[in-house]
Design goal:
Keywords: Glycosidase, Hydrolase, NAD. The protein contains 16 helices and 14 strands. By secondary structure, the chain is of the alpha/beta class. The protein has a domain of 224 residues: Dihydrodipicolinate Reductase, domain 2. β12 and β13 form a beta hairpin. The N and C termini lie far apart (51 Å).
C-alpha cells in the first residue's frame, strides 16, 4: 500500500473493523505471496446436492439490505405467490421505509429494522421466518448466511457468497450440519440464451463440450467513483490493494452448469494473471485535485484493470474467465460454449450459433433452434418474468424458481457447493496473481460427491409446482 497508514488507521478507513478476517483486510494482513496451505477437500457430513427440504406452503422472508439490489428484490418477491415478506432490514431508515412503501399496495406488511449494525440478527432470530434474503455489501454475505442457517433459516445471498476460502468452507460445513439451503443468487444462470444453450448441450447439439468462456465486462468506473451509488463507498474499497477476478460468478455459473461441474465433472486447477492498473489510481488522483473528499482514495494501489483466469477440469475441459469493470468496453459476459460439433457465443450481441468454420447460422435457422430448444421454464414463466423485470426478467425467474422449490419441497437448482466453488475463484485468483500466475488446485467442496451427483438445473420443470407470478 502506498500511503503510510497503520493497521488501525487502515481498518478505520475501510470501515471493516468488525471483519478483520474477511474480504480486503485478510488479503493484506495475511499476505498472498508464498505458499500458505489451504483446505482442499473434506469428509461430507450430508450431501446438500439434491436435498429436498420440507415443504413450505408459505415462504416467510426476511430481507437484509435494500440498496441497489435489495430494493428490486423486495418488489420482485412481493409478486410471487406464496411469499410473505415479514421483515426488511438496512442500516439506513430511509431505505427501509422506501422499500416498504414500494409494496404498500400488496398484501405484505413487513416490520422495519434499521439503525444498528446488529439489527439483522434480530431478523434471523425471529421464529416466523423461513428464508433470509441477503443483499448487502460483499463482506456481510458469509457472516449473515452462516448466522441464518445456524438459526434454522434457509439463506439466499447475493454474489459473491464468500470472499475467502475459509468462508467458502464455512458455508459448506454450516449448510451440511444444519441441513439448511444456502443458495447464491446467480441470476445469469436464468438468462434466456444461457438456458436455451444449456438445453442444447443436454441434447448433444454441440457434441462434447470442450471449452467455455465467461466474463464480467462492465464499465463501472464512474459508478465506483460516485458518492451516491454505494454506501460508504464500499464497492470502490473492494478494489483497493487487491488483484484478481473479484466477480467471476456471472460468467462462470452458466458454463459450470453446461459442463456439469459439481455433478459429473469438477474443477481441478487454475491460473490467473492481471494487467496493471492504468485507470483507477489516475481517476482517483484527478478527482482529488478538484474535491478533497477523494484525497483519501488518491495514490493507492488498485486492482489490475483486466484479469484473465484459466481453469482446467478433471475431465480435461477448459474455462477462460475475464474480469474488467474499468475499461471503456461494451457490456459482456462472453458466454462461449465450444464443443466437438458446434459453438454458441452470446457476446458481442447478437447471440450466435455455428456448426462449422463456414460461419454463423442464419437468423432463420436461429429462430428454428429457439423454437425447438427454448426450455419449459421460459415458456411457462418467461413472459411474466419480463413484465416484472430485473435484468430483462432473469432476476424474477431466479426468485420464482427458488420460491417454487421451497414451497413444493424440491431440491434447489443451485446449491451451497456451487456458491462455494464459484466464489472460491476470487481468493484463488488473488493468490495466483500475487505469485506470478502460480497454478493452484481448486478445492473440491463436495468431498468427492461430484462423481455421483446428478445435474440439478431443472430448466424443463420436471419438478415444479404451480406457483404463480402475480
Amino acid at each position: 500500500m502506498s500511503n503510510s497508514f497503520g493497521r488501525k488507521e487502515f481498518l478505520k478507513f475501510l470501515g471493516l473493523a468488525g471483519f478483520t478476517g474477511t474480504g480486503i483486510f485478510s488479503n493484506i494482513a495475511n499476505g498472498l505471496q508464498g505458499h500458505p496451505p489451504y483446505k482442499k477437500t473434506h469428509s461430507q457430513r450430508f450431501n446438500m446436492h439434491g436435498y429436498a427440504a420440507p415443504k413450505l406452503e408459505t415462504v416467510r422472508i426476511g430481507i437484509i439490505g435494500v440498496g441497489n439490489r435489495g430494493s428490486g428484490a423486495v418488489r420482485r418477491l412481493s409478486r410471487i405467490e406464496g411469499v410473505d415478506i415479514k421483515a426488511i432490514c438496512d442500516l439506513e431508515e430511509e431505505r427501509v421505509n422506501a422499500a416498504i412503501q414500494s409494496i404498500e399496495e400488496t398484501s405484505h406488511n413487513p416490520e422495519a429494522y434499521f439503525g444498528g449494525e446488529e439489527e439483522w440478527k434480530k431478523v434471523c432470530n425471529r421464529e416466523d421466518i423461513d428464508l433470509i434474503y441477503i443483499c448487502t455489501p460483499w463482506d456481510w454475505h458469509t457472516p449473515m448466511a452462516v448466522y441464518a442457517m445456524k438459526h434454522e433459516k434457509h439463506a439466499a445471498t447475493e454474489i459473491p457468497a464468500a470472499q475467502t476460502l475459509d468462508q467458502c468452507w464455512e458455508l459448506v460445513e454450516t449448510s451440511e450440519n444444519t441441513r439448511q439451503h444456502c443458495m447464491m443468487l446467480e441470476n445469469a444462470c436464468y438468462d434466456f440464451f444461457e438456458m436455451m444453450t444449456l438445453n442444447m448441450v443436454r441434447d448433444g447439439f454441440f457434441g462434447e463440450i470442450i471449452h467455455g468462456e465467461g466474463a464480467y465486462i462492465h464499465q463501472l468506473i464512474n459508478h465506483n467513483f460516485s458518492k451516491d451509488n454505494y454506501s460508504n463507498m464500499w464497492r470502490l474499497k473492494e478494489n483497493l490493494n487487491r488483484d484478481g477476478n473479484l466477480y467471476p460468478m456471472h460468467g462462470l455459473g452458466p458454463i459450470a452448469q453446461a459442463m456439469n461441474i459439481n455433478c459429473g465433472d469438477q474443477m481441478e486447477y487454475m491460473v490467473s494473471m492481471s494487467s496493471d492498473d492504468f485507470m483507477m489510481r489516475k481517476k482517483a488522483n484527478e478527482l482529488a485535485e478538484e474535491d478533497e473528499f477523494w484525497e483519501q482514495y488518491a495514490d493507492w494501489d488498485y486492482r489490475g484493470n483486466i484479469n484473465t483466469s484459466t481453469i482446467r477440469t478433471r475431465k480435461g475441459r477448459t474455462i477462460m474467465l475475464q474480469h474488467d469493470v474499468t475499461s471503456p468496453r461494451p457490456y459482456s459476459r462472453i458466454h462461449v460454449l465450444s464443443g466437438t460439433e458446434g459453438i454458441a457465443r452470446k457476446w458481442p450481441l447478437p447471440a450466435r450459433i455455428a456448426k462449422g468454420h463456414e460461419g454463423w447460422i442464419s437468423d432463420e435457422e436461429f429462430a428454428e433452434l429457439e423454437e425447438e430448444y427454448t426450455p419449459e421454464i421460459t415458456k411457462r414463466v418467461g413472459r411474466m418474468a419480463q413484465q416484472v423485470g430485473g435484468h430483462g426478467g432473469m432476476d424474477t425467474l431466479m426468485d420464482w424458481r427458488l420460491i417454487d422449490c421451497l414451497r413444493n419441497g424440491y431440491p434447489l437448482d443451485m446449491t451451497v457447493y456451487d456458491a462455494a466453488l464459484w466464489s472460491s475463484i476470487i481468493p484463488l485468483s488473488e493468490r495466483s496473481v500475487a505469485n506470478k500466475s502460480e497454478t493452484l488446485d481448486v478445492p473440491d467442496f463436495t468431498g468427492g460427491a461430484w462423481k455421483t451427483n446428478e445435474p440439478r438445473m431443472d430448466i424443463e420443470l420436471e419438478q415444479s409446482g404451480s406457483t404463480q407470478i402475480l
